[in-house]
Amino acid sequence: MQTNMQRLADHLIRYCKRPDHVEHEQTAIHRAIVNDSSLVDQPNFTRISTRTLHELFREYDQRFFLGQTMQLVHQRSGSLNFRLSKRMTKTGGKTTRIDYGHTSASGRVRSYEITLSSHLLFQGFKTPDPKERVSGVVCHDRLEATQRIFEHEMLHLMEMLLWVHSSCAETRFKSIARRMFGHTESTHQLPTRGEFAKRRYGLTAGQRVEFQHEGERLTGFVNRIGQRATVLVRHPGGELYSDGHRYRKFYVPLGQLAPESMKRD
Ligand SMILES: [Zn+2]
């Protein structure tokens, strides 16, 4: 049993295929998902389910991890789950291990879970010619971005299975990610709401903006960007802020804000 673990550990540590081989495998997975998946029917898919994550897992396991991952999960007395989260708004993916600290009837004492943020996946790739950088790699469609995040999380899973501790900030992870998948960065990020607002609408926090409110043109500055922008407008009846001025707060849809016109009063 130990040899299986050793074999996989050696495989990761020594992995050294040509970049075009790696790309070929990644493209083959991309094609397989579009062709075979029941939900994902185009690279910029509009629906995804955990079944797609299971399909991705099977493909990556076969093509990159010697088809041995599940055996390793079982050797660790674990189970493996996949999840999509609408609530993860800052990171594209997350891999967790839960140790139950006891032996259950089935012998499963820990579970591993890979979660991808459907929220971030669906936020990007809306423009006619989209490009997002994920793990340092330029992705041209939502499925490519999904794969880059999944690859990153698969490596977290493999490190947890083989060496228990996993960190994408450390040299071992970075080295495997670069050789195996061509990743040059360890970020989990797709554009967050703030970056999205900046690109799509040219909005940043602190910026002076104008908008219509009940027939009146108001001028203020962007305080926060969330689902809508929080805009503070100077007003004698408003709340006192630490800069010594009084402001009224407005929640304005991003599309209704315009940069303040040049003329100042
Ligand atoms: Zn990571």
- The number of helical elements comes to 8
Question: How many domains, in number, for the residues?
Answer: 2
Bound molecules: zinc ion
Average pLDDT? 87
What is the N-to-C succession of helices and strands?
HHHHEEEHEEHHHEEEEE
The rounded distance between the terminal residues' Cα atoms is: 77 Å
> Considering DSSP H and I runs of 4 or more, what fraction of the residues is helical?
25-40%
Largest beta sheet, briefly? Answer: 5 strands, antiparallel
Strand proportion, as a percent range, falls in: 15-25%
Return the structural class.
alpha+beta
Q: Which term fits the overall shape?
A: elongated
Describe, in short, the structure shown.
The chain is α+β, with helices and mostly antiparallel strands and 265 residues long. It is 38% helix and 25% strand.
Task: Please tell me about this protein's structure.
The chain is α+β, with helices and mostly antiparallel strands and 265 residues long. The strands form 3 sheets. A 5-stranded antiparallel β-sheet has the order 9-8-7-6-10. Strands 1-3-2 form a 3-stranded mixed β-sheet. The protein contains 8 helices and 10 strands. It has 2 domains: 2-191, no CATH class; 196-259, SH3 type barrels (Roll), CATH 2.30.30. Helix 2 packs antiparallel against helix 3 (50-64), helix 3 packs across helix 6 and helix 6 packs across helix 7. A hairpin with a 3-residue loop joins strand 7 (216-225) and strand 8. The mean pLDDT is 87. Zinc ion is lined by residues 152, 156, 168, 186, 188. Residues 152, 156, 168, 186, 188 line the site of zinc ion.
